[in-house]
Specification:
Layout lengths: L5 E2 L1 H14 L4 H16 L10 H9 L10 E5 L3 E5 L5 H19 L1 E9 L5 H10 L2 E7 L20 E5 L7 E5 L6 H10 L8 E2 L9 H6 L1 E2 L5 H16 L22 E9 L6 H16 L15 H13 L1 E2 L2 H13 L16
Parallel strand pairs: 3-4
Antiparallel strand pairs: 1-11, 2-3, 4-10, 5-6, 5-10, 6-7, 8-9
Helix pairs in contact: 1-2, 2-4
Length: about 350
């Protein structure tokens, strides 16, 4: 029997936690990193899931991430804070910044927490959902290393700088927006190149700035922002809020986690939290959100459309389905995790999915 590729999400999360602990990461921090990765896989964002385990470990080994670093507050008042991650894991730094943002918002009604000295922090939805659990509205943005040109430019300058928003509801699924500012994920272009397939015109440009349908040429060039100059402008604003304002890297000064082995990434984030109770009773707000969502879903549907969905609804359903039926990993990713496990005396096969028989 070959290596399994379907895994129980809780066992896989424990495996990843144990891997990071064996690599020298304090247990509670290892849990945060593993949870962030697994949640991405559960919600169908495999590019931010356990596939990142190997690069995270390598950056620890090369002293490009310092899991022992203290996360500090450099400036602070009642509603704002500037957090220095001091090059700890992005998800650990982001989680600490989120706690500060939510605490200040509960005290003052709203907060803005900026972060510098961080790393790749996973999906924005990871933080949005935690805010929703506490009945708070959250907007979180992050910058990233260069993969997109400015409109009219030729070479990468901006990251696919993501934005995420979480809003609680009552009986309906919450509103969870989590999106990059590129037209398409670079990972889709990588897959097309591996398969020898072409890509649609408009996804990317070659290294000379010319539109291309050749996936290999696209990887040597740049992905394009969504909605052209509008996506470029949004990505630039996120870079200003996450990088320029916080003292983190911005533009070409955010270092690539896969290519730069001399300098920390110095990624920046910003968290804006809002206490709903400062505007109306939480119960009333949730009732209004349910009404709003029900009205949208009751709108006339175009031919061939079975259901109108809200942002985050597909991911929420996928999470429930994968928790029930297991996370399917590509063979290459499973083999990579298996080799990592062997290095630390851990068995990936122990995390394999076994369907429970329900009587």
């Amino acid at each position: 029997m070959g290596l399994p590729t379907k895994f129980d999400w809780q066992k896989l999360q424990q495996f990843c936690t144990d891997v990071f602990v064996e690599a020298g990461v304090e247990k509670e921090k290892a849990k945060v990193v593993a949870e962030s990765l697994i949640q991405a896989d559960l919600r169908g964002v495999a590019s931010h899931g356990v596939v990142r385990t190997a690069i995270y470990l390598k950056r620890i080994e090369e002293s490009m991430i310092n899991p022992d670093a203290d996360i500090s507050i450099e400036k602070e008042n009642d509603v704002t804070a500037l957090v220095n991650g001091n090059n700890n894991f992005g998800s650990v730094v982001g989680s600490e910044a989120l706690k500060i943002a939510l605490s200040k918002a509960k005290d003052q009604g709203i907060s803005l927490v900026g972060v510098k000295g961080s790393n790749h922090f996973g999906t924005g939805a990871y933080y949005a959902l935690k805010a929703i659990e506490q009945n708070m509205i959250l907007l979180v943005v992050s910058n990233a290393s260069q993969t997109m040109p400015p409109t009219g430019g030729v070479r990468p300058f901006l990251g696919t700088n993501p934005i995420a928003v979480g809003v609680p509801a009552g009986n309906s699924d919450p509103f969870v927006l989590d999106m990059a500012t590129s037209l398409v994920a670079r990972g889709k272009i990588i897959v097309a190149a591996q398969k020898g397939e072409s890509i649609p015109i408009g996804w990317a440009v070659d290294k000379n700035g010319n539109p291309t349908t050749d996936a290999e040429e696209a990887l040597e060039g740049s992905v394009l922002p969504l909605a052209g100059p509008k996506g470029y402008a949004i990505s630039m604003f996120i870079d200003i809020l996450s990088g320029v304002l916080t003292g983190a890297g911005f533009g070409k000064y955010v270092n690539n986690m896969y290519e730069n082995w001399e300098d920390p990434q110095n990624v920046g984030h910003s968290f804006i939290a809002i206490d709903i109770n400062r505007f109306m009773q939480l119960k009333t707000f949730k009732q209004r959100m349910d009404m709003y969502i029900e009205d949208i879903k009751s709108e006339p549907k175009a031919d061939g459309v079975e259901e109108i969905l809200i942002p985050g609804e597909i991911e929420s359903r996928r999470e429930l389905e994968l928790k029930e039926n297991g996370i399917e990993l590509p063979q290459k990713v499973a083999e990579e995790l298996n080799e990592i496990g062997k290095r630390y005396g851990l068995s990936l096969e122990d995390a394999s999915f076994q369907k429970q028989n329900v009587k």
